[in-house]
């Protein structure tokens, strides 16, 4: 099991593995298992070589298994694992039963928390497959409203912030002074911040795969329909919507930073595990904002590994000081300053 939460997890998510590895030891197993099993459902949902109806069936099988009901997860692995291009994802899909057996041995509260977050995440992946019926630009479909986008970011990531909060409250006595409900709500916005960053970063790739997460009703006042975004000549007209969503993301990041800075300094491992994805997210969001036309970018928008290493090193020194962490966040998000000034709460 150590290898499953070590090598397999590291190979399936380098960024999340950083946060998991720095966590206190008692938290690594429930958090790591939740991530791996969520990654398994995400891999199944993205197995485009399988017909959509089959992927939905496999997701329902996994959702049943995650809830504790009898389900043939080995059949999911047999159907999906051979179709993966990455060896780590093939291995993960063949070891779902092993991970679930370990979930069953968790303490009751941890087990319930892991099962709960997996149920919500899988609901989000089912929603995604049902909402977007095609696989390419020829079958492009779009979310309808900002509320629908907000719901999507909650289902696939905001619920993780709630889970993260609950699992830490259960294990870390230094958090006893926290208002659980308030911090859970802040944790949900933490997850939404990161997911909305992914949405804004990945617009061009998602459009090519038949998915438009920019709400159709918000494009209409700009004289656009989702299909127009496939034309690079039209994407500059969508810039006001992009900037509006950048401001929404910044609002979530502000709440996520309040969450992170409320973590006691003695819980430095938790502080780093939260600060790292936020700082990387800020840098990524800034890269989106600085791109001449991020909605038509021909290459993925991402920050370099060197930049990530620098973030890790600087924040590891700054972790003991709220003001130092704030300075790191301000440095990385400086290209977003004008959006922050324009943002209305």
Quickly list its features:
345 residues, mainly alpha, Farnesyl Diphosphate Synthase, 2 domains, two-stranded parallel sheet, 17 helices
Low-pLDDT parts are none
CATH architecture of the largest domain: Orthogonal Bundle
The description of the largest β-sheet is: 2 strands, parallel
N-end to C-end Cα span: 46 Å
H-E order: HHHHHHHHEHHHEHHHHHH
Query: What proportion strand?
Result: under 5%
Average pLDDT value?
A: 93
Inertia-based shape: globular
CA radius of gyration is 20 Å
The proportion of residues forming helix, as a percent range, comes to 55-70%
**CATH fold descriptor of the largest domain:** Farnesyl Diphosphate Synthase
Number of helices: 17
Tally of DSSP β-strands: 2
Structure commentary:
The chain has helices at residues 2-12, 14-22, 25-45, 52-66, 73-80, 87-94, 96-104, 108-131, 146-171, 180-201, 203-208, 216-219, 239-261, 268-290, 305-318, 322-332, 337-342, and strands at 141-142, 211-212. The chain is built from 17 helices and two strands. It has two domains: 1-129, no CATH class; 132-345, Farnesyl Diphosphate Synthase (Orthogonal Bundle).
């Amino acid at each position: 099991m150590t290898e499953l939460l070590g090598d397999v997890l590291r190979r399936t998510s380098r960024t999340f593995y950083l946060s998991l590895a720095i966590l206190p030891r008692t938290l690594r197993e429930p958090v790591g298992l939740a991530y791996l099993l969520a990654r398994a459902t995400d891999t199944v949902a993205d197995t485009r070589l399988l017909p959509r109806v089959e992927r939905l069936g496999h997701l329902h099988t996994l959702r049943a298994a995650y809830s504790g009901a009898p389900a043939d997860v080995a059949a999911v692995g047999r159907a999906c694992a051979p179709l993966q291009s990455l060896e780590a994802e093939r291995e993960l899909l063949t070891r779902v039963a092993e991970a679930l057996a370990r979930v069953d041995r968790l303490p009751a509260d941890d087990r319930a928390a892991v099962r709960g977050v997996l149920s919500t995440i899988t609901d989000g992946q089912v929603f995604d497959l049902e909402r977007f019926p095609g696989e390419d630009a020829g079958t492009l479909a779009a979310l309808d409203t900002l509320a629908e986008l907000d719901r999507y970011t909650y289902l696939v990531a905001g619920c993780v912030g709630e889970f993260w909060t609950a699992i830490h409250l259960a294990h870390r006595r230094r958090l006893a002074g926290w208002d659980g409900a308030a911090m859970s709500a802040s944790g949900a916005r933490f997850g939404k911040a990161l997911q909305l960053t992914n949405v804004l970063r990945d617009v061009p790739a998602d459009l090519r795969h038949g998915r438009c997460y920019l709400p159709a009703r918000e494009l209409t006042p700009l004289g656009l329909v989702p299909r127009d975004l496939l034309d690079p000549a039209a994407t500059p007209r969508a810039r006001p919507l992009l900037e509006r969503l950048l401001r929404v993301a910044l609002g979530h990041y502000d709440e996520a930073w309040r969450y992170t800075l409320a973590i006691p300094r003695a819980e430095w491992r938790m502080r780093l595990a939260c600060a790292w994805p936020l700082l990387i997210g800020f840098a990524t969001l800034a890269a989106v904002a600085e791109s001449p036309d991020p909605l038509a970018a021909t290459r993925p928008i991402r920050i370099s590994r060197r930049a990530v290493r620098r973030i890790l090193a600087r924040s590891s020194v700054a972790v003991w000081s709220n003001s130092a962490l704030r300075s790191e966040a301000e440095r990385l998000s400086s290209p977003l300053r004008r959006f922050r000034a324009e943002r209305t709460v």
